[in-house]
Structures are given as structure tokens and as C-alpha cells.
Amino acid sequence: GQSLEQPSEVTAVEGAIVQINCTYQTSGFYGLSWYQQHDGGAPTFLSYNALDGLEETGRFSSFLSRSDSYGYLLLQELQMKDSASYFCAVSARNGAGSYQLTFGKGTKLSVIP
Amino acid sequence: GAVVSQHPSWVICKSGTSVKIECRSLDFQATTMFWYRQFPKQSLMLMATSNEGSKATYEQGVEKDKFLINHASLTLSTLTVTSAHPEDSSFYICSASGLRAEAFFGQGTRLTVV
After folding, report:
1. Nearest neighbour of B43 by CB, restricted to A41, A96, A105
2. Residue B61 C-alpha from the chain's centroid
3. Burial status of residue B23 (CB atoms within 10 A of its CB: 0-12, 13-18, 19 or more)
């Protein structure tokens, strides 16, 4: 099976940088992805890593180390609108040969002035 | 990114009735779609994997006779909550996998059973 660990809550100041870590245990690992979810809304895709290293998309970057079963999401130049829950998820092949995601419990980020 | 459309976005129904939720992939063909349930302040829990042209695969603890899934075409999967009860009230979300195994979600359906 799969399991993921990420902090439950993080608070950071507007304009600062915050890093949300995610460690995982899984079989058949294919990739690690990150999603943002505002209260009352559906998750939206942020970033995906299948290989080791850093992926940068604007203010958001995601890192993966497969050997350490570890990744993080880095948010720079924090804005108030970044206050949301952030989920990491591992992709693995299921028995039917399609990709299946298992989500962490989410990190609630609060950005304060 | 891929576009997945889910309808309705919210529904209120009486206990004992059935509710159908539709999930459409608008700009790509999705042979596999996923249905999740999310309770307040909790993570997404996979309910079932919907496979086009075949039976859905349900996660342990999910009643297949209560949560009927139909994936009749490459662009449409439906989830029917049968004989709904107040404990079925939740946020239901569908997703489809992208080319790199990332997930694209529908808007979600907030179901309230009264």
C-alpha cells in the first residue's frame, strides 16, 4: 500500500518563502504530484515530478528525491491568495494497469500579513 | 492542462432518493476516471476506479450497490448514490489522469441529504 506524511499546518508571512515537505512509502512508484485546494473548491493540479530534481512553475517549485522517498513544494513570494490546503500525492500503477493516486492528508497553509 | 467537468456542483436531496453525478472529460479521452469522497477538513479518499466499457473497481469498504458507477463512453463517467442517507452527505470529486499520471479534477459535487 501507500502512505504519505506531510505537516498538517504551516503559517507564513506574505512575501516570504515556504516549503511543504512530503515523505512517502509506496510500491510501484511512478511520480509525486502536488495539488492546491481552497475551502469549498476542488483540488487543482500544481506540479508533478517523476524524476529526481526540481521542477519550477512560476512561483511554485517542486522537488523529488526518489532515493529518499521525499519531496517538497516550495512557494515563493507568498500572497494572501495562497492560503489553502496543499496535498501531495503519489502515482502508482494499479492492478488494472492504470495510474492511481494516493493523497496525503494535506497541509493547511495560512499566509498572514 | 486537461479539462474535466462535473455536474451538478451541489445538490440537496431527500433521504431515500438517488442522486446522479456526471463527470466529463472535455478535451481528451479518459479510459480511466476516479471518484473520490472528501469529508470536511479531511483528505480525498478514493472510492472507485471507473473503467470505460467495464465494471468499476471499488476500494475496500465502499458499497458497490450503493455507489453505482457507469463509464459508458471515453468522455463520461457517472456516479449514482442510491437510497441516499444523511451520512452520505459529502463532497464528491471525479478526476482523470493526465499523460504524466497527474490528476485533473472536476469541480466537485457537494451532496447534502436531508
Report:
1. A105
2. 16
3. buried
Return the C-alpha cell found at B94: 471525479
Do B103 and A42 make contact, defined as CB atoms within 8 angstroms? no
Per-position DSSP letters for B32-95, written without gaps between them: EEEEEEE-TTS--EEEEEEETTS--EEPTT--TTTEEEEEEETTEEEEEE-S--GGG-EEEEEE
CA B52 – CA B76 distance, rounded (Å)? 9
pLDDT tens per residue across span A103-112: 999 999 999 9
Say whether pLDDT at A21 is over 90: yes
Best of A100, A102, A105 to mutate (most B CBs within 10 Å, chain B): A100
Counted across chains A and B, CB pairs separated by less than 8 A come out at 72
List chain B residues with CB under 8 Å of A35.
Answer: 103, 105
